[in-house]
Amino acid sequence: xxxxxxAILMVLSPIWPLGExxxxxxxFLIVNKQTNQIAYxxxxxxxxxxxxxxxxxxxxxPDGMHTxxxxxxxxxxxxxxxxxxxxxxxxxxxxxxxxxxxxDGRMYGVHxxxxxxxxxxNVSAGCIRMKNEEVEVLFSTVPIGxxxxxxxxxxxxxxxxxxxxxx
Length: 167
Hints:
Blueprint: H1 3-12, E1 28-32, E2 37-42, E3 45-51, E4 54-55, E5 64-73, E6 94-98, E7 108-111, E8 122-124, E9 128-129, H2 132-141, E10 147-151, H3 157-163
Parallel strand pairs: 1-10, 4-8, 7-9
Antiparallel strand pairs: 1-2, 2-3, 5-6, 5-10, 6-7
Pathway: Cell wall biogenesis; peptidoglycan biosynthesis
Active site: 111, 127
EC number: 2.-.-.-
Protein backbone atom coordinates (compact mmCIF):
# COMPACT_ATOMS: atom_id res chain seq x y z
CA UNK A 1 0.00 0.00 0.00
CA UNK A 2 1.11 3.48 -0.70
CA UNK A 3 1.39 6.07 2.01
CA UNK A 4 -1.51 7.96 0.46
CA UNK A 5 -3.80 4.92 0.64
CA UNK A 6 -2.80 4.28 4.26
CA ALA A 7 -3.44 7.93 5.13
CA ILE A 8 -6.89 7.80 3.48
CA LEU A 9 -7.76 4.58 5.33
CA MET A 10 -6.70 6.13 8.62
CA VAL A 11 -8.99 9.12 8.06
CA LEU A 12 -11.93 6.94 7.02
CA SER A 13 -11.31 4.29 9.68
CA PRO A 14 -14.12 3.76 12.22
CA ILE A 15 -11.58 4.14 15.03
CA TRP A 16 -10.57 7.61 13.88
CA PRO A 17 -12.79 9.36 16.50
CA LEU A 18 -10.59 7.87 19.24
CA GLY A 19 -8.14 10.71 18.53
CA GLU A 20 -8.71 14.36 19.32
CA UNK A 21 -12.16 14.59 20.78
CA UNK A 22 -14.22 16.33 22.02
CA UNK A 23 -14.45 18.66 19.10
CA UNK A 24 -17.20 21.22 18.69
CA UNK A 25 -20.50 19.48 17.88
CA UNK A 26 -19.16 15.99 18.71
CA UNK A 27 -21.21 13.84 21.11
CA PHE A 28 -19.91 14.12 24.68
CA LEU A 29 -20.95 12.66 28.03
CA ILE A 30 -20.46 14.16 31.46
CA VAL A 31 -21.08 12.21 34.67
CA ASN A 32 -21.37 14.21 37.87
CA LYS A 33 -20.94 11.91 40.86
CA GLN A 34 -22.10 14.64 43.24
CA THR A 35 -25.55 14.81 41.64
CA ASN A 36 -25.65 11.26 40.25
CA GLN A 37 -26.50 12.51 36.79
CA ILE A 38 -25.18 12.02 33.27
CA ALA A 39 -25.55 14.65 30.54
CA TYR A 40 -25.61 13.83 26.85
CA UNK A 41 -24.24 16.73 24.81
CA UNK A 42 -24.57 16.78 21.03
CA UNK A 43 -24.12 19.57 18.50
CA UNK A 44 -22.80 21.80 21.30
CA UNK A 45 -25.96 21.63 23.40
CA UNK A 46 -27.19 19.55 26.30
CA UNK A 47 -29.70 17.19 24.74
CA UNK A 48 -30.67 15.19 27.83
CA UNK A 49 -29.80 14.72 31.50
CA UNK A 50 -30.46 11.36 33.15
CA UNK A 51 -30.30 10.24 36.78
CA UNK A 52 -27.75 7.49 37.39
CA UNK A 53 -26.17 5.44 40.15
CA UNK A 54 -22.41 5.71 40.71
CA UNK A 55 -19.79 4.09 42.92
CA UNK A 56 -20.57 3.20 46.52
CA UNK A 57 -17.50 5.27 47.38
CA UNK A 58 -16.23 8.26 45.42
CA UNK A 59 -13.04 6.45 44.41
CA UNK A 60 -14.84 3.50 42.78
CA UNK A 61 -16.08 5.49 39.78
CA PRO A 62 -12.87 6.86 38.22
CA ASP A 63 -12.65 10.60 37.64
CA GLY A 64 -11.25 12.08 34.46
CA MET A 65 -11.61 12.03 30.71
CA HIS A 66 -12.23 8.62 29.15
CA THR A 67 -13.25 7.27 25.75
CA UNK A 68 -16.11 4.93 24.84
CA UNK A 69 -14.39 1.90 23.31
CA UNK A 70 -16.96 -0.93 23.55
CA UNK A 71 -20.73 -1.20 23.14
CA UNK A 72 -22.82 -4.31 23.69
CA UNK A 73 -26.49 -5.27 23.48
CA UNK A 74 -27.64 -7.67 26.22
CA UNK A 75 -24.15 -7.83 27.77
CA UNK A 76 -22.83 -11.00 29.37
CA UNK A 77 -21.93 -10.64 33.07
CA UNK A 78 -18.57 -12.39 33.38
CA UNK A 79 -18.15 -12.11 37.17
CA UNK A 80 -21.06 -14.44 37.84
CA UNK A 81 -21.46 -16.14 34.46
CA UNK A 82 -24.91 -14.62 33.78
CA UNK A 83 -26.12 -14.55 30.20
CA UNK A 84 -27.23 -11.31 28.58
CA UNK A 85 -30.98 -10.85 28.66
CA UNK A 86 -31.37 -12.75 31.93
CA UNK A 87 -33.46 -10.93 34.55
CA UNK A 88 -30.65 -11.80 37.00
CA UNK A 89 -28.07 -9.88 34.95
CA UNK A 90 -27.11 -6.71 36.85
CA UNK A 91 -25.80 -5.07 33.64
CA UNK A 92 -29.26 -4.67 32.18
CA UNK A 93 -29.91 -4.38 28.48
CA UNK A 94 -26.95 -2.29 27.24
CA UNK A 95 -23.26 -1.72 27.96
CA UNK A 96 -21.30 1.39 26.93
CA UNK A 97 -17.74 0.60 28.04
CA UNK A 98 -15.00 3.18 28.48
CA UNK A 99 -11.25 2.95 28.95
CA UNK A 100 -10.84 4.19 32.55
CA UNK A 101 -7.63 3.26 34.35
CA UNK A 102 -6.08 1.80 31.18
CA UNK A 103 -8.77 -0.86 30.83
CA ASP A 104 -10.30 -2.16 27.62
CA GLY A 105 -13.90 -1.00 28.08
CA ARG A 106 -15.02 -4.20 29.76
CA MET A 107 -14.37 -3.15 33.38
CA TYR A 108 -16.02 0.27 33.53
CA GLY A 109 -19.15 1.29 31.71
CA VAL A 110 -22.47 3.01 31.55
CA HIS A 111 -25.04 0.23 31.67
CA UNK A 112 -28.60 -0.70 32.44
CA UNK A 113 -29.61 -2.40 35.64
CA UNK A 114 -31.94 -4.99 37.06
CA UNK A 115 -32.14 -2.79 40.19
CA UNK A 116 -33.86 0.42 39.02
CA UNK A 117 -34.41 1.45 42.65
CA UNK A 118 -30.63 2.03 42.87
CA UNK A 119 -30.76 4.95 40.43
CA UNK A 120 -29.80 8.22 42.11
CA UNK A 121 -27.68 6.50 44.75
CA ASN A 122 -24.00 5.74 45.33
CA VAL A 123 -24.11 1.95 45.25
CA SER A 124 -22.15 0.52 42.32
CA ALA A 125 -18.74 -1.15 42.20
CA GLY A 126 -17.59 1.69 39.90
CA CYS A 127 -19.84 1.65 36.86
CA ILE A 128 -22.58 4.10 36.02
CA ARG A 129 -26.04 2.52 36.17
CA MET A 130 -29.05 3.78 34.26
CA LYS A 131 -32.62 2.65 33.80
CA ASN A 132 -32.71 0.14 30.94
CA GLU A 133 -35.06 2.18 28.77
CA GLU A 134 -32.82 5.25 29.17
CA VAL A 135 -29.51 3.50 28.51
CA GLU A 136 -31.06 2.03 25.35
CA VAL A 137 -31.72 5.57 24.07
CA LEU A 138 -28.22 6.71 25.01
CA PHE A 139 -26.69 3.57 23.45
CA SER A 140 -28.33 4.36 20.11
CA THR A 141 -26.94 7.90 20.06
CA VAL A 142 -23.39 7.52 21.44
CA PRO A 143 -20.79 6.30 18.93
CA ILE A 144 -17.55 4.52 19.73
CA GLY A 145 -14.95 7.24 20.32
CA UNK A 146 -17.26 9.48 22.34
CA UNK A 147 -15.52 11.17 25.24
CA UNK A 148 -16.95 10.73 28.73
CA UNK A 149 -15.84 13.06 31.49
CA UNK A 150 -16.42 11.92 35.08
CA UNK A 151 -16.24 14.44 37.89
CA UNK A 152 -17.58 15.40 41.27
CA UNK A 153 -18.49 19.03 40.86
CA UNK A 154 -20.76 21.77 42.14
CA UNK A 155 -20.73 23.32 38.65
CA UNK A 156 -23.64 22.85 36.29
CA UNK A 157 -23.28 20.72 33.16
CA UNK A 158 -23.06 23.73 30.86
CA UNK A 159 -20.06 25.14 32.77
CA UNK A 160 -18.31 21.76 32.80
CA UNK A 161 -18.97 21.25 29.08
CA UNK A 162 -17.61 24.67 28.16
CA UNK A 163 -14.43 23.96 30.10
CA UNK A 164 -13.88 20.82 27.98
CA UNK A 165 -14.84 22.43 24.64
CA UNK A 166 -17.98 20.33 24.34
CA UNK A 167 -20.14 23.45 23.94
